[in-house]
Amino acid sequence: MITRLRGDNAGTIPLVSPGSGLDCHLADTGLLPPGTRTAHLADACWVLTGPHLFTQLTADCGWSAEAYETWLAGMLAAAMLGPP
Fold it and tell me: Which residues pair with 13 in a beta bridge?
């Protein structure tokens, strides 16, 4: 299951996982591109939202947290909805 950390809280909340609701909602509303495999979508979201990538881009590459957030929003939208 894909999760997103909640700041300094100990818990996590679901972001997307196959059959979790978000993927079904996007599919039901026709927003997922044809042929989208929800398992691959969940994997892509997991990779993009992992702490390792955040650390690489902010600490190692010098990105600001705001720049990472803006980039991540665009990447997640592209992964879930396809190109504009």
Answer: 4
